[in-house]
Amino acid sequence: GLPFLWVFAPLPRGLGGHDCIFFQVLDGQELKPEDRGPRLLKDMESGETVEVSREFLLNDYPQRVEQHVQEVALAVGRAGGQHVLLDTRQPLGTALRNYLQFRQHRQ
């Protein structure tokens, strides 16, 4: 798994009856990169910059992002929470609607 997912490990299953919603916010370009040739990508945590090929960006990168999103969602689910993926291209109202639907189904 991913190193940061350890934060979910100490959470009790069911979260003691509390609702927990985890909003994962990703830029639209992270979810579906545009075909603009090779690029430099910067890791926001380490500051490291790496050049990636067009093929990697269009084929491997989206698969890796999807795997990451799934791992986060599984970790949140194991802790009894709900994972909501937000695309920065979508209106914030979408996130609120998803949360309210989650609340409605929990009652």
Features:
107 residues, two-stranded antiparallel ribbon, 41% helix, two-stranded parallel sheet, alpha+beta
How do you describe this structure in short?
The protein is α+β, with helices and mostly antiparallel strands and 107 residues long. The protein has helices at 28-31, 54-78, 92-106; strands at 21-26, 39-42, 49-52, 82-87. Helix content is 41%, strand content 19%.
Would you mind describing this structure in some detail?
The chain is built from three helices and four strands; from the N terminus they run E-H-E-E-H-E-H. Helices cover 41% and strands 19% of the residues. The protein is elongated. It has 107 residues and is an alpha+beta fold. The strands form two sheets. Strands 1-4 form a two-stranded parallel sheet. Strands 2-3 form a two-stranded antiparallel sheet.
End-to-end gap: 32 Å
Bulk shape: elongated
Strand content: 15-25%
Rg estimate, integer Å: 16 Å
Which stretches are poorly predicted, pLDDT < 50 over at least 5 residues?
none
Oligomer: single chain
Give the neighbour order of strands across the main sheet: 1-4
Mean of all residue-level pLDDT scores:
80
Our count of helices gives 3
Work out the number of β strands.
4
Classify the helix fraction into a percent range: 40-55%
Major β-sheet profile: 2 strands, parallel
Order of helices and strands: EHEEHEH
- Structural category is alpha+beta
